[in-house]
Design a protein that fits this description.
- The chain is of the alpha/beta class and about 325 residues long.
- The protein has one domain: Alpha/Beta hydrolase fold, catalytic domain (Rossmann fold), CATH 3.40.50.
- It contains eleven helices and nine strands.
- The protein has a nine-stranded mixed beta sheet with strand order 1-2-3-5-4-6-7-8-9, sandwiched between helices.
- Helix 4 packs across helix 5 and helix 6 packs across helix 7.
- The protein is globular and about 55 Å long.
Length: about 325
């Protein structure tokens, strides 16, 4: 493993032109309006998490197409709210897991929503998961989720997942345990890409976020990522196009609707990014493309020169804890 991408000095100014469809905003406005045609209908039921200092709740709400999406809500034991809220999205193959598996934000004194990613979760397991039951999921694709429904933005997998991510933000706006004015979105890898998507789409949903903290984010600058790395999950796209050679134009057109660079251009919340300069999964130039196009002026990026996709790990968590505390103190 070595530094294979652009030198850091070039990365710091790397702001490439990324294909953006003319109807980008109209597409997402219509998508979110369609989702709001289904009542959010959240259920929040207490569960035994085997922990003395954290209370957990099993959450279900209506995501894209009205399909049920699962999440955990963790809060400090005995909390009555409203609490500053951290919304967490998960990496590729991950999900909310078991109720005791990830509670650090509740340990820090906040409400912590941890969303399942539909159809995923096999890496962490858990007692329940969120299926991708959409009819669009049955369209031919390479193994994995990157090319599911890729020939049309209306049927693409990440249209549904991004919609789920925004709908969970809607849940934060009307629940007695959650402070609607103090909500931060975060996540690593795919979760970082979903945090960027949520931040970019939040203004369309009329939601003002207190912060966005994408950690080594995935789903950014697809054209460069697919050409630069052989690592999965980006490799799924190349494998698909190696077989369906005539689908490239349609596939990359669809990807332009979910590209984190285009979402970052619309995100205004304060942001804390991270990037690893030896990251073969999410090449650093793809992260910097999103960071340098990020619309919000209050932004910073932590750089880990000698790390692969694990990034800063506990070092970045410590930085996030400090940064989130500052956002919630304001």
């Amino acid at each position: 493993m070595a530094m294979f991408d652009l030198p850091l000095a070039e990365l710091e100014t790397y702001a490439p032109e990324v294909s953006e469809p003319e109807d980008f905003d109209a597409f997402w406005s219509a998508t979110l309006d369609e989702a709001r045609g289904h009542a959010l209908a959240p259920t929040v039921e207490p569960v035994d998490n085997r922990l003395a200092l954290v209370d957990s709740y099993d959450v279900t709400f209506a995501g894209a197409g009205g399909a049920p999406v699962r999440a955990w809500l963790h809060v400090p034991a005995g909390a009555t709210g409203p609490l500053p809220t951290v919304v967490q999205y998960h990496g590729y193959s991950g999900g909310r897991g078991l109720p005791h598996s990830s509670t650090i934000w509740a340990q820090a004194g906040y409400a912590h929503l941890s969303m399942d990613t539909r159809g995923q979760g096999w890496n962490g397991g858990g007692g329940s998961s969120t299926a991708d039951a959409s009819a669009d999921a049955g369209i031919n694709h390479a193994p994995g989720f990157m090319t599911s429904g890729i020939l049309d933005p209306a049927t693409y997998y990440y249209r549904r997942v991004y919609t789920d991510a925004v709908r969970m933000l809607e849940l934060t706006q009307d629940h007695p345990l959650l402070d609607a004015r103090r909500v931060v979105v975060t996540g690593g890898s795919q979760g970082g890409g979903l945090a960027l998507a949520a931040a970019g789409l939040a203004p369309l949903a009329g939601i003002e976020l207190a912060g966005c903290a994408p950690d080594v984010p995935f789903l950014c600058h697809f054209a460069r990522a697919v050409a630069l790395t052989d690592r999965h999950p980006y490799r799924e796209i190349a494998q698909y196009l190696a077989g369906w050679r005539d689908h490239a134009d349609a596939a990359f057109r669809t990807l332009s609707y979910v590209d984190g660079v285009n979402l970052a251009k619309r995100a205004v919340a304060p942001a804390l990014f991270s990037v690893a300069l030896m990251d073969l999964t999410c090449p650093p130039s793809t992260v910097y493309a999103a960071y340098n196009h990020y619309r919000g002026a209050d932004k910073q990026i932590n750089v880990y020169p000698y790390n692969d996709h694990e990034g800063g790990e506990a070092y970045q968590v410590a930085a996030q804890l400090d940064w989130v505390a500052e956002r919630f103190a304001g």
